[in-house]
From TrEMBL:
This is C2H2-type domain-containing protein. Residues 6-34, 34-62 form the C2H2-type domain. SUPFAM superfamilies: beta-beta-alpha zinc fingers. InterPro entries: Znf_C2H2_sf, Znf_C2H2_type. PROSITE patterns: ZINC_FINGER_C2H2_1, ZINC_FINGER_C2H2_2. Coiled coil: none annotated. It comes from Phlebotomus papatasi. It comes from the Eukaryota.
Length: 82
């Protein structure tokens, strides 16, 4: 009697066990997501994020640290080379 099936919230698939459903969601609907640091969107690939940032946020490179720490770059480089 206790054959309650779990439905995937993203598609119509049914699973008998939560672990199976979770594995399905991770594989089919989530994958390895890369979040954009400038907005809430996520992407499946690093390249897609870079292209999105270049287009939407008008930045040429996915290189936040150099932008943020432009003034500290010299001292950072020096400490890195130690
Ligand atoms: Zn699904
Ligand atoms: Zn973005």
């Amino acid at each position: 009697m206790n054959s309650k099936k779990l439905k995937c919230p993203f598609c119509e698939r049914l699973y008998g066990y939560e672990t199976n459903l979770r594995a399905h969601i991770r594989q089919r609907h989530q994958g390895i997501r890369v979040p954009c640091p400038y907005c809430t969107r996520t992407f499946t690939r690093n390249n897609t994020v870079r292209r999105h940032i270049a287009r939407e946020h008008k930045l040429e490179q996915y290189n936040i640290n150099s932008i943020k720490c432009e003034q500290h770059q010299m001292s950072q480089l020096q400490s890195h080379s130690q």
